[in-house]
User: What shape does this take?
Amino acid sequence: MQMGVTLLDRGCRFAVWAPHADEVFVLGTFNDWNGTAHPMIKDEGGHWHAEIPEAKSGDEFRYRILSGGKEFSRLDPYARRLTNSAGNAIIQKDIPGRKPGRFDPPPHHEMVIYELHIGTFGKTGTEPGPGDLEGAIERLDHLRELGVNVIEIMPVTEYPGSYSWGYNPAHIFAIGSEYGTPHSFRDFVRQAHDLGMAVIVDVVYNHLGPSDLDIWRFDGWYEEEGGGIYFYNDHRAKTPWGHTRPDFGRQEVRDYIRNNALMWIRDYGVDGLRWDATAYIRNVNGGDGDPGDLPDGWSLMQWVNDELKNARPTVINIAEDLQNNPTLTKAPQDGGAGFDAQWDARFVHPLRAALIEHDDINRDMEAVRDAILHRFYQNAFERVVYTESHDEVANGKARVPEEIDPGHAESWAARKRSTLGAAIVFTAPGIPMLFQGQEFLEDDWFHDQDPLDWSKKERYAGIFRLYKDLIALRRNKAGHTRGLCGQEVSVHHVNNNDKVIAFHRWDQGGPADSVVVIANFSAHRKQEYLIGFPAEGKWAVRFNSDSRFYDGEFSDTGSAEVIATADERDGLSSVGTIDIAPYSAIILSQE
Assistant: This one.
């Protein structure tokens, strides 16, 4: 039975799961909120259903549940639209799903992700309240100009109050009423597709709520102070965000999560999901081990990921697990959870540490080397690499420029070292990601009530150009950096005394493919510095983060090309002499 509301040729069919209820009624604007006019019929599985000819799209409604001598007024758990998190459900007219063949996301090795928060990214006016989907649509041209091809959206489902990061979902099927309607979200996805950008949505299945959580003790039943039919009712319910972990072993709850995941793909046409805190789906305390002490959570991830692939083979499923467990991205038939990629804690933490450290002597080039080389299995694109995300720029941490020079995120040091970090992100193997505003030196830390300062795009126009150029190189837009889309990497030069590191990226190798990246993590310019190259001849400098094109206070150190001669160096067949500025990176390739 299809749960929730189904529009018929005449009226609507309502279906709700309430196995412990004695009676259930539908009431709403179509019957003047009459609590007895439309009783529902119960089947053997505890599902209730009713067909109401008077009900139509746009009507508000609720369920009246009688159970054990008590009465409850409940929202439809499958409601696609609410007046607000504590208001009424709204019957939503079906929205057209994705048309087959209209848009496919880029292959993983060409993806560049931009993470954004609708409430702060989409704020366009001075009126009170958060930004919305319409405002975010207005900003899509900015993302096309920047060159990203995947947008990752922090959760857009209904949450309590006006402001939220979205990781406290009250109703996982409903688009947040502060952000817009189901149609406005579908418009956002369509327009992103029209501009060549895929859309990934963050989903939260490790816990629900905990506030304005209408499915809590939904039909009156519960055990041990638990949450009732949708939740574990013992020690397994406990999470850092409340005792609201869904019961991953109960089929109706598994169906609820699976149907929600499929909704994003089928009904809205999104191209992938990023699962929040998967460690807390497979482990009670978020520890490691596979499948851990919640095998039902592990099997749920396997099942849903498999269902999503069956529904749309090009979908990308990303885990935020952060436990360095390679089994997350292993295929379900091989015992894995079936994710395509996962956020890589082994990359972000050592790289941020090297950028933020005040004293050069303490920068660890071997740790940076290990961050560049780390991978979960053989596929380099099973990881997402970044220096900023919503987690990394909040909860006691700030934006990278702010961490480098607190209170002076616009300083020379902050600009130099943060852009050095960006160069590593976009040249290391993996799927690169940046967080909203990073491309124009946004400072401070992430607040859900603090919109992006769009004036910085003009103020730091050079920094924006730097990110734009890095993204173009990463995507091989000019046809001479194919190696950045390849699987192969060799960190052939690590100088922990001078704080210089160099690595070679390639797909098949050779001209227009092999890329050499050289980074100076020290405050001292390096002149006539010898570096190994994989081939002799002329190597053109495709990018120099010290260029005055990016900032008038940068020094333009270095030449436009390097001539490598046949002489073994760093384990490679050729050697070249470079000149590189402090806290800078250069990217080279051959014609």
Notes: The two ends are 61 Å apart (CA to CA).
